Amino acid sequence: MPFVWSIGTIIGPFIGGTFADPHDAFPNVFPVDGLFYRYPYLLPNLVCAALLFVSIILGYFLLEETHPDMQPRVFLPDDTFASEETPLLETMDAMKRPAVDMRDDNYGTVRGRDAQAAAKKVDQPYNIYTKPIMSLIAALCIFTYHSMTYDHLLPIFFEDDRATANPMSILATPSSPFYSPGGLGLSLRAVGMIMAVNGVIALFVQAVIFPFVAEKLGIFRLFIIVTVLHPIAYLMVPSLLFVPESMLYAGIYFCLAIRNIMSIILYPVLLILIKEATPTPKALGKVNGLAASAAAGFRMIAPPVAGWLYTTGSKVDCAALAWYGSAVVAVIGAIQCFSVKRQRKEEMCEEDAQPILRKKESRVTVTEVFSDAE
In this structure, are residues 19 and 26 in contact, taking their beta carbons and an 8 Å threshold? Predict the structure, then answer.
């Protein structure tokens, strides 16, 4: 999923940067006083809505049910179903084996089953509100919050006008890390191109870097490393205000590369760990739904909080306040990640599933044998 997301981050900024304010980009096609002249951001939204409609149609016709108990009959193997005619059917293989087991212990049934084996297949109760799952969902929520603030603040910071130095500001000292007036003052087209390149970087990280480091370090160790190092990605961005004009784009792409290495690796790692912590495949829907709902809540509050911090900081020549706020949340995530304890799936099934099956009783029968000599 992150791989496909990276492809979308290439196409999305291209659509926004190309079709926003179409009269300015294509004056002959979109004249003055036209619909798209009065609503300069309508065209890219219509394109996105059309793509969303296509995705709904494709999902309806192409997606298959994955729940074990809800799969349609046509997707199950042919030998899953048996009838009274099944024993009379002859196979086509060289051994001429019958279609069903016709031994004595199976007499009278089409498909004989052992009672104890059937009892083991009874659905066991499970608990999804376990400490490993809750810790991972908390980590996902923290990551989702500061990752959303980054995506929200980045184009604003790029397009915000550069502010002239204010010597009267209490923060206007060479040694003050909080003095960061305004943004970079880039154009809408330049921001769209930067965001498209950002998608290419994310695609490279997902396709090349992530498989390599996951194989070398392991999923859990990689989770700890990228979570602890994540605050660096937010502390670097405000320093772009002091980068020379000739090196600005190089500095931007360097910051984007560091951030993509952290976020593109952390997101699939969290999804893998949540799946491994799920006690049974039948609980994946509930666990994923709970994780997605919790993450969506944090994703909802991230933009207004980040926007308020950016506005408040800009009034006091400290636009970096929003970035530092995100860094603080990332530090909280770096501390919280150590509360996630790694457990094997078998151990979690034993502790959290809480099976109510009785132990099989063993009986020993002693038979006395008498000799004729006695």
Answer: no
Quick: pLDDT tens for 336-358. 999 888 765 545 444 444 443 34
- In a shared domain, residues 175 and 104: no
Residue range 142-173, pLDDT digits in tens = 999 999 999 999 999 998 887 665 555 555 55
> Any idea what DSSP says for residue 206?
I
Residue 50 resides in a domain: no
Spatial neighbors of 15 by CB under 8 A, at least 6 apart, are 44, 47, 48
Give residue 80's pLDDT. 53
Do 187 and 100 belong to one domain?
no
- The Cα 198–Cα 177 span in angstroms is 26
Domain carrying residue 108: 73-112
Phi (first) and psi of residue 90, to 5 degrees: -105, 135
State whether 167 and 306 are in the same domain: yes
Q: Are residues 108 and 132 in the same domain?
A: no
The answer to whether residue 56 is domain-embedded is no
374 within a domain of the structure (yes/no)? no
- Six token digits for residue 162: 């550069």
**What are the pLDDT digits (tens) for 236-256?**
999 898 888 899 999 999 999
DSSP string of 24-85? HH-TTTS-TTSHHHHSTTHHHHHHHHHHHHHHHHHHHHH-----TTS--GGGS-GGG---TT
The per-residue pLDDT for 88 is 55
Which tens digits make up the pLDDT trace of 177-196?
A: 667 777 888 887 888 889 88
Identify whether 16 is part of a domain.
no
Mean pLDDT, rounded, for 268-278: 91
